[in-house]
């Protein structure tokens, strides 16, 4: 800022007004980045957030900071977008940290864990509860600077060919579910299956699998699973509010002028709130269409949720005993979650419950 | 963009790289704005949002677009901040539209109405449900361009000297509550009182009033009302998610370069998500301190909520019959609310209910 100070000092002799452009402009560099999304363009809510983000950065810089977005597979496959950032192949990526669960379960604390925080609580933890600092520290080893950049909200538990009436019905159930949810499902007798979205329909149709989870009404509708597995279960307790992240390569981040860093950060926050708003605005009509198309809504029986809750906490205790990185982030995460739940029971919870009861 | 096109054409002869700064910089003007907040600095969550917003705009422009923030009363009193924007005394303001309820109840649809949307639903309506367009049109007559810029979340119903056991206990109750909430309270026999925050404590202590609502634990704690009225009721059904707005004068907005407009819009969205996160992160500990200090939590009895719900809908029907501006915004608002409630009952509601039950 020395140069600006000099300019100010030099200007004191003249008649400077606060509205006038300075005589010598501080020019900002033209920068072109590539963003690789872990999602296909068909998921317009999630992929759309990376587009909105890039568009805003461009508009805020008069096109000087240009970020081109690429869907999963265009440059790198979905599961490798974080690697591409780490290796410097691209400057940034947009992905759910759940994709990195296989590398280290700690990543899931940046997205969702079974019976974790809901969307609003997760945002509170990231922005104001210390979550961002803890995760930034964790990501540092991967050469990544992370930013919250979207949330799906609480997900549905997915599409089942048969009803789930007790925990016994989970036993042997071949369920398309990944990462953490799959690990918990296995503990209660289920058989998790890792199947890419495009292959779910035929697998469920042929009976290779008994059930499949995806996201929620708006995204699920695109897969058409209600035509072959009519029971639509809730809640997707493994993703009570699944956060999506923007990953920026540490070197790319440091190379940015401070103004561009500020713009990028604000644009990520805007895309964060916008994605949740899109899901919230679009899910109700999609749910109605699905029900009109034959979907039958079913809540998991309480004993199923209780068994999964118990299994989840067992998994967390085991992870905490053997993975110090996990423990370091998980403990404050759970403390924050528990305090949020305590508070949400009163004003938020009682308000929402009353509204649900009068509009039933 | 013609000038840029010319520069590009002129540059084709040379060895241009995408990372090089252009030879002639597009300079951005230095602009200084004043923002008047309707809140005192002591409300650091709300007032803090205007500071965060201004800071981000400054950082994103290298200090060229400077917005100085002023607390209520520093330049104009709280209730006149919108007038100050309309008249061009200042370029922008940060206020809850409930303050303008007296001018036209339609303003409340930009903040909160009794039994309206919760925070997340309101954000979905504004960003993706058509709410922004409807309200922008309404505000046009006042020379204001509005942006969502914070939400308090569901508020508490406030501090009562005596318990409310039935709707009869509302009859004759002198309750410090403003605007729409007061109008509904009156319908069910209460006596609304308009008292500035600083005067609530002595009025409640002397018994001039029987009860007072403010915001929620974090803000309420500062007033110390738990020392003189120990029953802390919920939910504050008149503000299930009270949105705060950034008001920009239409002429000031139009005078901005497109880049500054983009920066302002992103910074407002960031402040919007940040304020809710601050309330969520800080309310739990404040609630615990209040309870440790003697506050006794009480839920409104169902018949009280039912009576208020009925009264609210009567008020809405009357307003719709006589105020076309209200009707134009209220009808889509309520349609959106009802669809949100339908959807929130499933994944979100069942997830939150389960979590509340296991952490009780």
Characterise the protein shown here.
Two copies of one chain form a homodimer. By secondary structure, chain A is of the alpha/beta class. Chain A contains 13 helices and eleven strands. Chain A has a six-stranded mixed beta sheet. In chain A, helix 2 packs antiparallel against helix 10, helix 5 packs antiparallel against helix 12 and helix 6 crosses helix 11. The longest helix of chain A has about 35 residues. The relative contact order of chain A is 0.15. At the A-B interface, helix 2, helix 4, helix 10, helix 12 and helix 13 of A face helix 2, helix 4, helix 10, helix 12 and helix 13 of B.
Main sheet of chain A?
Answer: 6 strands, mixed
Strand order of the largest sheet of chain A: 7-6-8-5-9-11
Envelope shape of chain A: globular
Q: Write down the oligomeric state.
A: homodimer
Mean pLDDT figure of chain A: 93
Low-confidence stretches of chain A: 1-25
State the share of residues found in helices of chain A, binned by percent: 40-55%
Largest interface (CB within 8 Å) is between: A-B, 91 and 91 residues
Count of distinct strands of chain A:
11
Work out the helix count of chain A. 13
What is the string of helix and strand elements of chain A? HEHEHEHHEEEHEHEHEEHHEHHH
